[in-house]
Amino acid sequence: METKPHALVAMSRSSFEAHFDRGRLDRLDSLVTLGDPLWTDDLDSRRARRRLADVEVLLTSWGAPELTPARLAAAPRLRAVLHCAGSVRGLVGDPVWQRGIRVTSAADANAVPVAEYTLAAIIFAGKKAPFLAADERLAYGGWGSVTGYGDLSNLGRTVGVVGFSRIGRRVVDLLGLLEGTTCLVADPYADPDEVAAAGATLVPLDELLPRAEVLTLHAPELAETRHLIGAAELSRLPDHATVINTARGSLIDGKALAAECAAGRLFAILDVTDPEPLPADSPLRRTDRVMVTPHIAGSLGSEIGRLTDHTLDELARWTAHQPLTAEITAEHWASGLSA
Ligand SMILES: NC(=O)c1ccc[n+]([C@@H]2O[C@H](COP(=O)([O-])OP(=O)(O)OC[C@H]3O[C@@H](n4cnc5c(N)ncnc54)[C@H](O)[C@@H]3O)[C@@H](O)[C@H]2O)c1
């Protein structure tokens, strides 16, 4: 009978506690051989090094130590790193690919709550709900008594999605729930047929901006996407448009956005900012036309269990020598296009 591969869980204590309840630990135990320690946040301790000598698969997450050449040398039998969170940046690099170690991530599962949060933000943007809630003038009358919000409606809106990424694709899909929505996508790397099959239209960013009543960002943080939405791009959005950012703060020129919102022309719902957290004196905090949440769109609380389940499913496939579904290959990594 084939023996189960030796596995070690490497992540911070809080990550371990959030990822593995009793049921999920039992499932892990059924798939692999666990030892002592079962979990560590320190791959350099003597105890961890003893385990690394046998380990064939690592389950990692937030707080996992980087897999440096020295740590990899201490794990001569390591064949797979299954990451229970989103990006593997800061965890793996060339030494991992050079060893032919397989890597997967749970970014697909992490895309679910971000897309859900974005749909909620789009619907609230249609009704201008966060901004009306913050408008002191409403203490003295109904919504009809205030001006400057444009049309308070979710019917027949045009939404511009920047980035046909994991999350961007899910957002396009969810927008099918809103009657009469036109969905435009801007992404220099997307396939127009794939975008059309998802129910949207691929257009250049320049063409998308003047039509987007809601602009939602889902591109990765890269050198080329820094301030992708700057003063010039913001000025091309229609009056009363809402900018939603659940991607990364650096994608937007925050000062230019604050100026447009303070001038009464645009609105913004931001789950991410640059820097994070936003300083108390940031101009983005000085207007009721901007709603800021503290980077909560991704998996939190019970949603973290979905990341674990996704990874345990992948582990089951790996132990059964079946194809992996969330593998990050050396080529994908080298393309530098991903989050
Ligand atoms: N708020 C949160 O809690 C949270 C959680 C997870 C991810 N994120 C962020 O959401 C964003 C999307 O994540 P993902 O996992 O869907 O990304 P991803 O890795 O799937 O994105 C890669 C894709 O982005 C597209 N892209 C690349 N460059 C682009 C450009 N210049 N313009 C438009 N599109 C471009 C390409 O289609 C590429 O394939 C990232 O910025 C990520 O950091 C935020």
TrEMBL record:
It comes from the Bacteria. Pfam families: 2-Hacid_dh_C. Keywords: NAD, Oxidoreductase. Residues 134-297 form the D-isomer specific 2-hydroxyacid dehydrogenase NAD-binding domain. The keyword Ribonucleoprotein does not apply. CDD domains: 2-Hacid_dh_8. SUPFAM superfamilies: Formate/glycerate dehydrogenase catalytic domain-like, NAD(P)-binding Rossmann-fold domains. Belongs to the D-isomer specific 2-hydroxyacid dehydrogenase family. This is Hydroxyacid dehydrogenase. The lineage of its organism: Bacteria, Bacillati, Actinomycetota, Actinomycetes, Kitasatosporales.
